[in-house]
Write a structure and sequence with these properties.
single chain; 231 residues; alpha+beta; Arc Repressor Mutant, subunit A; Nonspecific Lipid-transfer Protein, Chain A; 2 domains; five-stranded mixed β-sheet; two-stranded antiparallel ribbon; 45% helix
Length: 231
């Protein structure tokens, strides 16, 4: 039993000893979302120190929740969910749905992180409405410091990539807004069309990308559940 455990022979207590240490659930969220490499996990929990992330990964490995797989040919090692870890997916999702439904979401918009927002948008993006040829969408957040104002989503052949530096491609769609507005859209609290009518988001570029933005935009999976419940 870990130090500071509950000392109770109870399934809830035993599970809490494994899952409820600080940052552990967020690390598991990233693993359930498909991140397997250390640097990708760090991008998903940018405020967590590398030392603490390494510690939590070792703890989860020791508990049989994940396994560390050595990379081949010089590739980095990967962390993969075991059967026990895969069983946690429904729990992680249920917690997110509960938080989206019952926690006052507007208050959480003060905890804004543009890098994490863009990373989540990139991995949840739906390329289906986009052409197979390369599409470049530049997001601009004028209220941020110059070094953090610009992000580029590059979608080609059904794959999405994210750059924080100019990739040098022609831009097909410019999206100018503030981080709070973009986060609210991503969380399903509002929509692209509504914010455009309120002049809180400006879209300039290809008409087809503007019209389909709400469809291809990478919304939070919990926002999709919120919309499903509302429907």
């Amino acid at each position: 039993m870990p130090n500071g455990g509950y000392g109770q022979f109870c399934p809830v207590a035993m599970a809490s000893e494994v899952l409820c240490s600080r940052w552990t659930m967020l690390v598991l969220r990233e693993l359930c979302a498909g991140s397997t490499r250390f640097n990708d996990l760090r991008r998903g929990v940018p405020r967590m120190s590398p030392t603490l992330l390494s510690k939590r990964l070792r703890e989860l490995e020791a508990q049989g929740v994940i396994e560390r797989v050595r990379g081949t040919g010089g590739a980095p090692a990967e962390y993969r969910l075991t059967a026990a870890g895969r069983d946690l997916r429904s729990i992680i999702f249920a917690m997110g749905v509960w938080g989206q439904r019952w926690v006052e979401t507007h208050d959480t918009l003060k905890n804004l992180d543009p890098s994490l927002l863009m990373w989540d948008m990139r991995r949840n993006l739906d390329p289906t409405p986009l052409p197979r040829t390369r599409s470049v969408i530049q997001f601009m957040y004028p209220e941020l410091a110059r070094a953090r104002q610009n992000y580029w989503l590059i979608v080609e052949e059904g794959e999405a990539d994210l750059c924080a530096q100019d990739p040098g491609f022609d831009v097909d769609l410019y999206v100018v807004t503030d981080v709070r507005t973009m986060t609210a859209i991503w969380m399903g609290l509002t929509s692209v069309a509504k914010e455009a009518r309120a002049d809180r988001i400006e879209l300039t570029g290809r008409v087809d990308l503007k019209r389909s933005m709400q469809k291809w935009l990478g919304l939070s999976p919990f926002a999709r559940e919120r919309n499903r419940r509302a429907a």
